[in-house]
Structure prediction request, 441 residues.
Amino acid sequence: VVQVAIVRPGPIQGGMVHPYLKARDNPDAVTYPSEALRTALGRTLGVPIFQEQVMQIAILAAGFTPGEADQLRRGMAAWKRKGNLHQFYERVVHGMVSRGYEQSFAERIFRQIEGFGEYGFPESHAASFALLVYASAWLKCHHPDAFLCGLLNAQPMGFYAPSQLIQDAQAHGVQVLPVDVAHSQVNTVLEIASPLENHASRTPSALLPVRLGLQHVQGLSRQGAIRVVESRVNRDFESLEDLAKRAQLHRKDLQALADANALKSISGHRRQAAWHSAGVVLDKDLLQHTRHEESAIALHAPTALEDMLADFRSVGASIEHHPVRFIRPQLAQFKIQPVQVLKNFPHGRLARACGLVTHRQRPATAHGTVFLNLEDETGHVNVIVWNSLAEQQRHVLRTAQIMGVFGIWQREGEVCNLVARRLVDYTHLLAELKAGSRDFR
Prediction:
């Protein structure tokens, strides 16, 4: 509950985060100006985190009546209008000083109250969020297969893209299977090999494969996806022509499935499937007198790099390859280490990382600091870019898709960050590989 409430703009602006973290690390050192405030602040280690605690402080330490405390609450709820809160300054600060509290303490309490004008949580609100957080965390810990399945079916949503969700699930032992017209449902599902497996042979802790659904195929109509699943109920598809006929797929739907490599089980790799789908006769009367016994043309299979790029274009994720993997030899020349290696670095060491830029954030409460998240084939790392560097390298910061960061490794307990000293755009490395037709099969 505290974790949910403390990462809001109010507690951050009110300077509550670091005092709380410091107190949590050493709770025996926490002191209270009075026993009355211990009653109000004991459960949050002396730091007011919730709106209700501010009301308690006003009543217990500043002499507010319950009605006046409710007016203070209303002022805090009027987010970003500090003027409403300033009218309480004299009442809060002088009320506390007159009751024996130090002026500096009273001033600090009021600054924290002002912070709630920038959006703070009542405890009941934080508790409601926390229940969802706990349930989600439990599900992700014990059933990462079902967790991934649910998140993918709820897209678009949340902070993480499907590619990141898939990579994280794979790192936790979940097998992710590609889109396939022979097996995929419309939605992403947990795939059970046989009806008996779920009840007899599978242990409670065993993870089921997650089969990506047809809904992830860019350009495929939802009705087309539904018809593919419905027409497959009685018997499997024998060929691409059989699929097109029974599911009544239009040329656009066939091409979308070919681009997503979803026809592999009945028509070969995506190039072969694309060529084949372009030649499927959808109208029997149109070409009934033309030759149709010609030998099939065999096309070269795409390289792993081409497959990966096509997966991202057509499905939004690649379950086999990560883009950074292909430029790892070039990155090694710059002494750039995988994220998995950096995780073992000590505090203060020079470090170099490179990855896909998955997030860029510049919170109003961070005084111009930009927070990045870089993802490579081994994991992800948080990057802190101070305002001065962000201004100096604004173009790279805003436009790089694959970014290299040279900086200082920061470690505090289990929390690790890379504090940037220089940013480099390495997006061109992947483009050069593609242009050069490098084969990574």
Q: What stands out?
A: Confidence is low (pLDDT under 50) at residues 285-291. The two ends are 49 Å apart (CA to CA). The longest helix spans residues 123-142.
